[in-house]
Amino acid sequence: xxxxxxxxxxxxxxxxxxxxEKTGAVVADSVITTKVKADIFKEPxxxxxxxxxxxEKGVVMLSGFVDSKADAEKAVRLAKSVDGVTSVKSxxxxx
Length: 95
What we know:
- This protein is α+β, with helices and mostly antiparallel strands.
- The chain has helices spanning 2-42, 69-80; strands spanning 50-56, 59-66, 87-94.
- It is 56% helix and 24% strand.
């Protein structure tokens, strides 16, 4: 009986490792999103802008509206400067 339980546990180990990796990625992505949002909020020019931030597997996606191209570029630069960000995709529109 113990041998059967041990084999079952061994069979489940890879699935549990993958689940842990996915959970870790979700946590890391949410931390990245929070840091990017905080950095954007700290910038007086961007603070009141409607910039939406999403992160998936380290890729930050920015969307929303800003007053100028310079504001859009600043948001992208801020996002790129956050630890853990692998790339930034911007769909920010200038009003």
